[in-house]
Amino acid sequence: MEFKHISVLLNETIDSLKINPAGLYMDATVGAGGHSYEIAKRLTTGKLVCIDQDEDALKTAKANLKEFGENVIFVKGNFREMKKLMMPLALFGFDGILMDIGVSSYQLDNPERGFTFKENTRLDMRMDKSNELTAEKILNDYEEKDLYKIFKEYGEERFSGRIAQNIVKAREKKRITTTYELNKIIENSVLDKQDMKVKSIMRIYQALRIEVNDELNALKFAIEDAMFLLKKGGRLAVISFHSLEDRIVKNAFKYLESDCICDIKQAICTCDKVKTGNIITKKPIMATDEEIKNNNRAHSAKLRVIEKV
């Protein structure tokens, strides 16, 4: 299957990075390379590092960016380890780093990857296929209370308890291995109309995907690493697609911009917190109606940008 993906907030993201033709940049979640292409074509003597944990994505990005030759460096790995990944390359002092968070259109549309609920396929959901944890293992091996926790916290699903309970009952008879088996359990656990059942299915799949790939923790570590790798005046741009991700980015940026985190009742600062960033986007940049019309995935996208001081 061809790796297809439409980059969201493309112009807004490139503009926010303020590309220096001789600068050093990173696309920490390169995907098919849509954002990277626009960065690379603005470089002369500059360099662009492209990271992705998905081998299919890297293969596609290499093909799409081959015209830029040695100006682009490809690295397989998780963006949560970008500092570690840069050590062998001795690359530090980046002018800009981009992180486009979440699952790609290719991963969603390819039944073999197990992200979609629309096809009957194995429950996988790994972005890095070398990882051992899959959605199938979670559904069959996690205790009921742990299933409830991830459905509630990562999916914000109001029927989390009933769904977790029915998953445990179902797996006592037969191991849950396919998407349609999971869909049926969710549908039988939800009392609402069919359109509401579909939304519950989507929320459970989101929760499983986040757990399989440890996405929220990865995002926290990635922001910390990115700020370390940036030079003063360098910018970090993060595109998120749901409230849990955006909340992490918003709170992390707020912390980085703060000079003090002491209780406001304290007369003297004792925290020794030092401001390390200026938030460029006081409110997140969102897609225009025209972009959403052409790419429905953009409707929930939010871009936040911070500059290192």
List the helices and strands and how they pair.
Layout (H helix, E strand, L loop, with lengths): L9 H8 L6 E4 L6 H7 L6 E6 L2 H10 L7 E5 L5 H5 L7 E7 L4 H5 L25 H7 L2 H12 L4 H14 L5 H11 L4 H20 L1 H15 E11 L2 H15 L19 E3 L5 E2 L2 H6 L7 E7 L1
Parallel strand pairs: 1-2, 1-4, 2-3, 4-5
Antiparallel strand pairs: 5-8, 6-8, 7-8
Helix pairs in contact: 7-8, 7-10, 8-9, 11-12
Structure report:
With 309 residues, the protein is an alpha/beta fold. 44% of the residues lie in helices and 15% in strands. The protein has 13 helices and eight strands. It has helices at residues 10-17, 34-40, 55-64, 82-86, 105-109, 135-141, 144-155, 160-173, 179-189, 194-213, 215-229, 243-257, 289-294; strands spanning 24-27, 47-52, 72-76, 94-100, 230-240, 277-279, 285-286, 302-308. Strands 1, 2, 3, 4, 5, 6, 7 and 8 form an eight-stranded mixed beta sheet that branches. Helix 3 links the parallel strand 2 and strand 3. Helix 7 packs across helix 8, helix 7 crosses helix 10 and helix 8 crosses helix 9. The longest helix has 20 residues, at 194-213. The protein is globular and about 60 Å long. The mean pLDDT is 92.
Name some characteristics of this structure:
single chain; 309 residues; alpha/beta; 8-stranded mixed β-sheet; 44% helix
The helix-and-strand class reads: alpha/beta
Annotation field: number of helices: 13
Q: Provide the succession of SSEs.
A: HEHEHEHEHHHHHHHEHEEHE
User: Count the strands?
Assistant: 8
Beta fraction of the residues?
Answer: 5-15%
Characterize the overall form: globular
What Rg, in angstroms, do the CA atoms define?
21 Å
**CA distance, first residue to last residue:** 44 Å
Please give the share of residues in helix: 40-55%
Which parts are unreliable, with pLDDT below 50 for 5 consecutive residues or more?
A: none
